[in-house]
């Protein structure tokens, strides 16, 4: 009988731009306060990319780190997948720009868009490609530059977001299987709750759309909060059930870093104590597709995770989309 192909997580990496924007800096830009932002979101500062530093540049730097970690050469990668809502351009894909930077022509490269759940969707896609036997080493990246689609006069949104990128290398293996389960979901009836109104085919760019700031994030914050918590709990419970593990088996719970109050509400409803929950939102803000992978990478780097530990990632984002994955490091 043919042996089943498993997925090994060979390495992770991350990159945040150098420039820091603190809540105190924001106090000078809009009518807000460090106190309000900290209490409502848990965010103290976020990183901002430079004008000449597109999403693919952050993706490249995170990928180089993941390749080094995995001790793999770029030419050993046979597929590139980038989860992002802030591509360098509408087309070609950011994955293609990344491929050129890595100098590995010919390998397939494409983007996927599932907002803040993008990286979890990516794990599921990469796993399916590897298990099918079609590809052996996939570079999966979650990268976003939300500060470039932010309305800096809107205090409701501009305090929430940041820029960053994380990368993971997933390899075919007959010895191990690090992806224990993935659960995904979406509900497109909420597409007007968190969105970028213009620039696509339903509202192409015009002087009017620019003047009305329709190329920046619009969000119904309360609705996001109301739906995010139960959907993240649902996804986390389903992925756990499919993995045939229990909460006791989970070393660390890594939720999407959107908002400290959402994270705490999910942990409470799951019955997980906060010392088992990884949080880095205070220094990153919400980096959308990059949150779970950059948090995972940090947890590995600072020694909160060791080889063999089981981790649950859970995310929620525009669409709405949601997803969770139980993985072994
Ligand atoms: N500084 C000071 N005051 C502010 C700010 C700010 N940055 N932003 C809003 N306010 C004001 C509002 O104008 C309002 O004033 P008003 O009462 O005079 O009208 C007051 O604060 C309360 O506003 P609410 O919207 O009721 O505040 P709420 O407690 O709901 O908090 C927040 C807002 C933080 C956005 C919350 O709804 C939330 O966390 N939602 C989830 C949003 C989120 O995480 N989005 C990320 C993208 S989606 C994702 O990644 C899952």
Describe this protein's structure.
This protein has 329 residues and is of the alpha/beta class. The chain has two domains: 6-177, Peroxisomal Thiolase, Chain A, domain 1 (3-Layer(aba) Sandwich); 180-328, Thiolase/Chalcone synthase (Peroxisomal Thiolase, Chain A, domain 1), CATH 3.40.47.10. Helix content is 33%, strand content 24%. It has eleven helices and 13 strands. It has a five-stranded mixed β-sheet, with helices on both faces. Strands 8-13-12-11 form a four-stranded mixed β-sheet. Helix 4 (94-102) links the parallel strand 4 and strand 5. Helix 3 (55-70) crosses helix 4 and helix 8 (221-243) runs parallel beside helix 9. The chain is globular. The two termini are 28 Å apart. The relative contact order is 0.19. The mean pLDDT is 97. The site of acetyl coenzyme *A has 25 residues, from helix 2, helix 6, helix 8, helix 9 and strand 12.
Helix/strand order, N-terminal first: EEHHEHEHEHEHEEEHEHEHHHEE
| Strand elements, count | 13
The CATH class of the largest domain is Alpha Beta
For the terminal residues, how far apart are their CA atoms? 28 Å
Whole-number tally of structural domains: 2
Low-confidence stretches: none
Sheet having the most strands: 5 strands, mixed
**Percent of residues in beta strands?**
15-25%
Helix content: 25-40%
The number of helical elements comes to 11
Report the mean per-residue pLDDT as an integer. 97
Enter the CATH topology name of the largest domain: Peroxisomal Thiolase, Chain A, domain 1
CATH superfamily of the largest domain: Thiolase/Chalcone synthase
